[in-house]
Design brief:
By secondary structure, this protein is of the alpha/beta class. Helix content is 45%, strand content 11%. It has 16 helices and eight strands. It has an eight-stranded parallel barrel, surrounded by five helices. α9 links the parallel β4 and β5. α2 crosses α5. The longest helix has 19 residues. The protein starts with 21 loop residues before the first strand and ends with a helix. The structure holds phosphoenolpyruvate and magnesium ion. Magnesium ion binds next to α12.
Length: 329
């Protein structure tokens, strides 16, 4: 992707009607962030760290923590790529600071929700040096991903590097518009532990205005919403995984793709439970899955439900804004 792929809109936020729901954007490519920030928006509802790591780093964090354990050709390649940096881990942290910092600066007047890494093991294995550390899982989609990594002995040190980048951006560089999002949390015990680990790495909820939200993307998150919400500032609904896991449809299988629909009554019921639980406690609730970008009727339903924000694909923001504004008029 390059700058030329962006259609810069001439519509400005001030030209658009006020809505009851904030319209945010999904932004993952630092190179496009400034151009995309010209599209009317109220912040970034989802910046996937995997996208930033793929572009800015391309090396498995554990290979950077211990390059000596790599075969000579990989070690040489790592050395070549990190030559300008003080150390392999400084390379990881500084490149991540640059990538996240670019997005947070482009959207400086709005919140930017950075999601902690959510690579699946098969995706991590594709990073340079990664295959040495990653298990061969039969079902990586429901395997070693998201929160389970941050609290594991294998991934703890790598996770500390992500935290260090965010801590520096917020506490040393003043980009306190950055908020943190935890993906793929299976149990309440897991989020409790993640919150402790984040605090141990200098990311303490409430300190310097830090809000920590959790993706609501596993049915357990909606079914036990209150228990999860005891530990976080709110939910962002991940309708992609929530639909996959509620309907039992593998997102990666074309053979069952026709059964994938965020608007299935069972998925809607879980979303309603999540939104109701957040609103009852005055907690943030947004959505950052693909659903409202793909289906206008789903976006309208979410607004009717009282969702606080929707994070959309950049190319659907203006049309969604205009449509919702016309419907409210
Ligand atoms: C989701 O599951 O809806 C989501 C936004 O996360 P991802 O698509 O990265 O799994
Ligand atoms: Mg997800």
């Amino acid at each position: 992707a390059g700058l030329l792929e962006i259609e810069v809109t001439t519509t400005r936020a001030g030209d658009l009607p006020e809505l009851s729901t904030k319209l945010m954007m999904n932004v993952g490519n630092p190179e496009l962030a400034f151009a995309q920030s010209r599209i009317p928006n109220q912040g970034v509802g989802l910046a996937r760290m995997e996208f930033i790591i793929n572009r800015q780093i391309g090396i498995h964090p554990r290979a950077l923590l211990d390059p000596a354990s790599q075969p000579p050709e990989v070690r040489d390649e790592i050395e070549r790529r990190i030559a300008a940096y003080e150390s392999p881990t400084a390379f990881f942290v500084e490149r991540l600071v640059e990538g996240i910092g670019t997005i947070a600066t482009a959207f400086a007047e709005h919140p930017v929700i950075i999601r902690l890494s959510d690579f699946k093991s098969n995706e991590y294995a594709h990073l340079l040096g990664g295959s040495a550390y990653e298990p061969e899982e039969e079902n990586p989609m429901i395997g070693f991903r998201g929160a389970s990594r941050y609290v594991s002995a294998q991934f703890e040190a790598a996770f500390a590097l992500e935290c260090e980048a965010i801590r520096r951006l917020r506490d040393e560089m003043g980009l306190t518009n950055i908020q943190v999002m935890v993906p793929f949390v299976r149990t309440v015990a897991e989020i409790e532990r993640v919150i402790e680990v984040l605090a141990a790495h200098g990311l303490e909820r409430g300190v310097n205005g830090l809000r920590i939200v959790m993706m609501c993307e596993i049915p357990s998150n909606a079914l036990s919403a209150d228990a999860f919400l005891d530990h976080v500032d709110g939910f962002s609904i991940g309708s992609n995984d929530l639909t996959q896991l509620t309907l039992g449809v593998d997102r990666d299988s074309a053979l069952v793709a026709s059964s994938f629909d965020e608007r299935d009554p069972a998925v809607l019921r879980l979303i309603e439970m999540a939104v109701t639980a957040c609103r009852a406690r005055g907690k943030y609730v947004g959505i950052c899955g693909q659903g409202p970008s793909d289906h206008p009727d789903f976006a309208d339903w979410l607004v009717g439900l009282g969702i606080e924000s929707m994070s959309l694909n950049p190319d659907t923001v203006v049309e969604t804004w205009e449509r919702l504004g016309a419907a409210a008029a």
